Amino acid sequence: MFIEHLTNHHDIPHFVWQVVCSSLIWLGLYKLLRNAGGHKKWDGTKKGLWVYSGPEWSCRVVTLIHGLMVIVVASSVTPLSDLIPGGPNSREQEMLFALSLGYFAFDTGWCFFYGWPSFLMFSHHLLSIVALLIPLLIGRSGAETAAALLGTEITNPLLQIRWFLRQAGWYEGTRLGKANDLTFMYLFCIMRVAAGGVLLIKTTYSPHPHVLIKTKQK
Hints:
The protein is an all-alpha fold and 218 residues long. The protein has helices at 2-7, 14-37, 55-77, 91-113, 119-138, 142-153, 156-168, 175-205, 211-217.
């Protein structure tokens, strides 16, 4: 009876299946990019965005797509003007969290497959997974979690673009590289420092969010 209870799919939270599907989709996209790009290696002489299409290139394309999708979806499911911390999750917010959880599961696996990840990278992914799991488990605080996810991911595409520009030889001393860095600094200060600070204060002093949510925001 105990084994049957554990294996009964009805006892598994619905978001678990969404996370599993999301992980498989990100993995499938990665494999598609690897097959499309072949297994060419950069010899350090040629320049251009497509001269190197190894594993990291494909993984960063997946990361770029994830960042862009989070920006679009999180912007549409986050009530920035009248955000009330601690409210119940919407279906769209939970799907967003499952989408990102699947990505972080894929990327963590990729890091371990191609070498032990750095402590900073592993800590970032672990904290991100925990931060996205909490609102799914308690069923609340989806709005502030989506806003925090938007604030952290909005600069991520620029980090990936910088890497691609470096690989192409179009970063050092170029206007394109400087424009990318200036845009990153602007968005970082506005979204992650200013807006993130306001969100932190609003969540901390609100009586509605769970204590885990307040700890997560800090």
